[in-house]
TrEMBL record, chains A, B:
CDD domains: ProRS_anticodon_short, ProRS_core_prok. This is Proline--tRNA ligase. Homodimer. One of its GO terms (cellular component) is cytosol. GO terms for biological process: prolyl-tRNA aminoacylation. GO terms for molecular function: aminoacyl-tRNA deacylase activity; ATP binding; proline-tRNA ligase activity. InterPro entries: aa-tRNA-synt_IIb, aa-tRNA-synth_II, aa-tRNA-synth_II/BPL/LPL, Anticodon-bd, Anticodon-bd_dom_sf, Pro-tRNA-ligase_IIa, Pro-tRNA-synth_IIa_bac-type, Pro-tRNA-Synthase_IIa_type1.
């Protein structure tokens, strides 16, 4: 196939789009691959669509290779199945809802767990029909609060979602492993530098869950790794409960006068100035217990206050907290909320009203680093006062623990495999043992070998297809433009004819034809009256991995080959050029 | 590729689905190609998806062959462009509308004229950029009042829509011709028995417009053909205005007493009984002028009465009338409406109050068959009375003509090419010279050769892709099941292993592998414990054109080949089978 730039529906831009912040977004728009239609909603222009189809092809081939079967569900779906699993409500404002002309509630599918479960229930009835893996590559819809970074987080996007159906846990484990291996092949072929991390299973009710993250400094996900091989999405890090310590030597708790110390810093300074420790050490933020109040908004709209106690030297990580309380959303605890809880002394809140007598009526959860028997400085529930030597277990209690405090570089890995280092990534894939949650909600049962009805166990596996295009661009560019991995590129060769010499254009056209006949896709810059400089700039921007330039060298019988990634140039005799290009592409 | 029926996600059904009326719907569901998800919304199961992709591939190849370039727009679109063209309103209840989380109005694209126009405006600015043809193959949404016949008329469906952009009318004519030829190739390859008919351009504001109709007795469209080559969708038939006749010999109009004659039949009987014609001929319905009242509901909700005068021997054709008054909808003229117009004598309405003094205030349009100078019996605007010898032009006038009366077998073709015959078809494609309507509404201008801004002229070209699957099935089946054209079939060969002999299954598996290595797709019925009878029934139902049966004959060294369409059977030596199958498929 030959794509002639003289007629290709393409305009490259020299300026970054005003709304773009990350390189992939800037470059995909500038190079004419995508075009914004509405916030988080994009049009795929011809070259972009070629790239998208290349990604789809890789995903499809690897899914087919593990025996998964492709089908396609509608994007416009009836409410009832999502009502049965409560997701109609739980999805909150992220779900696009609409009514049809008869007033029936419908939605645009955010994921299709319900539909996959129902189609298997519809067609299958016996253990003999299992295992089964089915998938689709299809438009998904999520009304993101903050669509961002072009197609990296859009509101309409293409996803491959597959589901496995097994009669028992061993079967699920096997289906999961098959998908895991397929995903490794997919992300290898897509050219990602990626990491497989433990992920939250949380509200979805399943067990084993891993994410494939493309390592990217502009990624939205933070993950941690240890030298010993631990790797987890930061939401999934489970800090172990600190072991009990002996509180026998801790004196009785004492209320101290600490005027004007509503923050940890002011508190630590005041303590060191006026209430020196008996052991001679200085007070630090790590000695303090900070009690943070938030409001949970449940999907039904109800609001619940929540108090979280964490060491004063750490902050709440909103994503970790969010993952713990899903599907509730976390919003700030406002002055109006304080007004409803008069026992709370803002800036001086302590376990007095939260954790022991709990006169506040608010649920109180502690960071697992807070050991039973450990002593803390914390609020005395009276403005201007704190309490010292307040011992967890002796002087106060809590309603449980929560994984909500930030995880930091240097924290110990939960499995003892060394110090954690944090990094950022883009979630490209998620594999997940759903278990029986959906099968139970929608009553998917089959007969087992003994003729008994048993609930099927399911796995769920997703790949962000449109997102992959952005993530590949994020990991494959330089200051001049995009640099596509060969299997993803919109063309095999970018052939540039320069100058005004008719012989050059004739030779280039002949070459394009020969390459096409050898099965290559050629992006042929046949534009007249466009300067070589502009053509070279476009070639760098568009990012086809191999650039062939027919120009001045032709008089000496050579064509210049340029490797877009390495920048190396080579003059190749005209007689050898086709073979050499075919070899480069097939390599 | 080998599709093994032992693990294929497929269940064939022996019973027709309860909601299915037409053969294609029944068979596509029974054969496990599609499955209903909601009214007019379907899931494509693995074999169905293969068929759908085959149709898409043909459409794509032929669009690419005329230099059209593929891109893809979102399905979820912002309101503003559709507001600019007034389609947000005009589409009425057929448009799926929704609001996003910020309250912005959005829609699910029914067609993408606006988006195509805007993307060209966005990227192009000069006559040098034209001509351009761009297309997409993508999900469309229309909230049909009566979704029917499975995927023949769905609410979510796949359509190929393309648009051409030209600097002048000659360019548009050329782009139109290119698409027309591509469509002929597409519908030839899809195996349709089709007809190209003149179509309405109507409200869309364009000029030349043709439809490709698959001839099908269950089709929703009625078309007419003449021996001389005239062919038109019945909505597009333009009956010429009857020529003026001489009314000199017609006596003065006379009101006659015709009690209890509110219908044409009772009127004709009463006239023949009590008011014999002077020329001795009997009165017939064709002598009467019937005045029909309807109410138009405009997109803004306003209601307008309309009176239509047609010869009494014809009925109003709702589709022809609907096409004339688009985007208004036609509803019945109710008693309440009569109450608002007291001069109307129900059952005896005449041009007295409608067409001359027009005391009713109602717009009055006549069928073009009503010639100036012709005399009619019609209502006298007084209950129980009619008027005879009322001459159009002499005794009454009207506000214009309307093409709303039925067209019948035997009517003369408008171009004089003989008598019309009516038949039914399924609209598979529509090509349409849009002209400048959208370009004007959205201000798409480019610089011409003289540096002057000119409005671009556009063509619009659609193919119903999901509908094509149903229409092909509608035209390719028998009482046993589907019979796919080869290029559309989900597999090249349906290979059936029968009996319990291990040697049979071994040979069949070997054969499947050999066929796969030759590039064929094999649907291999490798199911154990399924009787030959069930396997043969399934093969007939599924409709792969070539069936190969490995069974009893294997002992004698033969395999049975069956042609699904002709039913011919042949025993082929094992040694020849692969070559013979490959030859049959490649033929």
């Amino acid at each position: 196939m030959i794509l002639r730039m003289s007629s290709l529906f393409l305009r490259t831009l020299r300026e970054d789009p005003a709304d773009a912040e990350v390189p992939s977004h800037k470059l995909l728009v500038r190079a004419g691959y995508i075009r914004r239609t509405a916030p988080g909603i994009y049009t795929w222009l011809p070259l972009g669509l070629r790239v998208l189809r290349n990604v789809e092809k890789i995903v499809r081939e690897e899914m087919d290779a593990i025996g998964a079967q492709e089908l396609v569900f509608p994007a416009l779906l009836p409410r009832e199945p999502y009502e049965a699993t409560n997701r109609w409500t739980e999805y909150g404002p992220n779900l696009f809802r609409l009514k049809d002309r008869k007033g029936a509630d419908m939605l645009l599918g955010p994921t299709h767990e319900e539909m996959f479960t129902l189609v298997v229930k519809d067609l299958y009835s016996s253990y003999k029909d299992l295992p089964l893996s089915i998938y689709q590559i299809q438009n998904k819809y999520r009304d993101e609060a903050r669509p961002r970074a072009g197609v990296l987080r859009g509101r309409e996007f293409v996803m491959k979602d597959s589901y496995s159906f097994d009669i028992d846990d061993a079967g699920l484990e096997n289906s999961y492993e098959l998908h895991r291996k397929a995903y490794i092949r997919i992300f290898d072929r897509l050219g990602f530098d990626y990491v497989i991390v433990k992920a939250m299973s949380g509200a979805m009710g399943g067990s084993r869950s891993e994410e494939f993250l493309a390592i990217a400094k502009n990624g939205e996900d933070t993950f941690v790794r240890s030298p010993g091989g631990y790797a987890a999405n930061v939401e999934a890090v489970v800090v172990p409960q600190a072991e009990q310590v002996d509180a026998a030597a801790v004196p009785a708790a004492e209320v101290v006068d600490t005027p004007d110390t509503p923050t940890i810093d002011t508190l630590v300074d005041a303590l060191n100035a006026k209430h020196a420790r008996t052991d001679g050490r200085e007070w630090t933020a790590a000695d303090t217990l900070k009690n943070v109040l938030v409001t949970l908004v449940h999907p039904d709209g109800s609001r619940e206050p929540l108090a979280i106690g964490i060491p004063g030297d750490r902050a709440i990580d909103e994503k970790r907290l969010g993952a713990q309380v899903e599907p509730a959303e976390v919003v700030a605890f406002e002055d109006a909320d304080f007004a409803k809880h008069p026992t709370l002394a803002k800036g001086y809140i302590g376990p007095g009203v939260l954790g022991k007598e709990n006169t506040s009526g608010i649920r109180y959860l502690l960071d697992p680093r807070i050991a039973e028997g450990s002593a803390w400085v914390t609020g005395a529930d009276k403005s201007g006062f704190h309490v010292v030597d307040l011992v967890y277990g002796r002087d106060f209690t809590a309603d449980g623990t929560i994984q909500a405090a930030e995880v930091r570089d240097g924290d110990p890995a939960p499995d003892g495999s060394g110090a954690l280092a944090t990094a950022r990534g883009i979630e490209m894939g998620h594999i997940f043992q759903l278990g029986r949650k959906y099968a139970e909600a929608l009553d998917l049962k089959v007969l087992d070998q003994n003729g008994k009805l048993v609930t099927v166990t399911m796995g769920s596996y997703g790949v962000g297809v449109t997102r992959a295009v952005a993530a590949i661009a994020e990991g494959n560019h330089d200051e001049l433009g995009l640099i596509w991995p060969r299997e993803i590129a919109p063309a095999d060769v970018h052939l540039v004819a320069t100058g005004k010499d008719a012989a050059v254009f004739e030779k280039a056209a002949e070459l394009a034809g020969e390459l096409e006949s050898r099965g290559l896709t050629v992006l042929y810059d046949d534009r007249e009256k466009v300067s070589p400089g502009v053509k070279f700039k476009d070639a760098e921007l568009l990012g086809v991995p191999t650039i062939a330039i027919v120009g001045k060298g032709l008089a000496e019988g050579t064509i210049e080959l340029k490797d877009r990634r390495t920048g190396t140039r080579e003059d190749v005799p005209v007689a050898d050029i086709v073979d050499q290009l075919v070899a480069a592409v097939r390599a």
